[in-house]
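Let's sit down with a protein and look at its sequence and fold side by side. Once you have written the record down, we can walk along the chain together.
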Amino acid sequence: MFRTKLLAALFSIVLAVAEEFSFFNEASSAPKIEENEQKLTWHLKAPERTVTEIEVPVTEEPPLETFTVSASIYHPVPGQTDSTPFITADGSRINKNNPKKHRWIAVSRDLHSRWGGDIHFGDSLQITGVSDELDGLYIVRDVMNQRIRNQIDILVGEKDKVMGFWKDVEIAKLN
C-alpha cells in the first residue's frame, strides 16, 4: 500500500516538472522541427587554439630471442613416442582423430628448462623456415628423446601427408 502511494506521488511530481518545462505543452514557444521548413544551420565558433597531435611515446618491445634449430615431424604412435602416445610429457591429451589441429611441438631436452634450456612447457613459439603449411605459432607440450639435440618435433597425425626434416629453422619464444 505504501509503495503504491509513493509511486503515485512520484508520478505526480514528474508530471508537474514536465509541465513546468513544457515537455508536454502543445503551446510551447520552442519551434517544432516539423513546422520549420528552413534548413537548419549551426554556427560553431572555432577554438582560439589549434589541436596538435599528442605524441605518445612508442615503447618498442625488445626483439624476440630467436634460436636456429632443426625440425622434424612426429606422429603419436608408440614407435615415435613412449608407451602412452596420446599423452604428452606435460600431461596434455592428444586428439586421436586430428593431432595436427593442436599445433603442439616437442623440443629437444637441451632447449627445455628442466634440463637447463630457456623453453618451458606451455610456451608459445613462432616457427619459420619449415613450410607455408607448418610455419606459425605452436605450444610446447612434449620433449624429445635425450639423444636428440637442438631440434623441435612438430606433432601431426599419421593421416596427414607431411614428412620431412628441415635445417636452419628459426624459433622465437613469444612469452
Observations:
- The first helix runs from residue 2 to 20.
